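Thread title: Can someone regenerate the structure for this chain?

I was given the following input by a collaborator and told the matching structure tokens would be attached. They weren't. Posting the sequence so someone can regenerate them.
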Amino acid sequence: MEDNILYHFFNNKSSLMDYSDELKLIDMMMNLPISWIIKNKDEFLNALNILSDSYTIGHGFLLQTEKDDLIFNHF
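Best answer:
Regenerated them for you:
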């Protein structure tokens, strides 16, 4: 798996992402192997911080549905 996969995800995206992009990012992050996360710890933590800001400051949490609750609970 290539390095910078999460950085590439953010190309052409604003710092406050669409809710659908937040869900895509969560899916990507949940499917990364632990070995990749260990090797790319800073990239993973940066993506987590961006996601957190986008979700809270960008009001993504207002769009969360009951079906999405499972995604967030697992994440």
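DSSP finds five helices and no strands in the chain.
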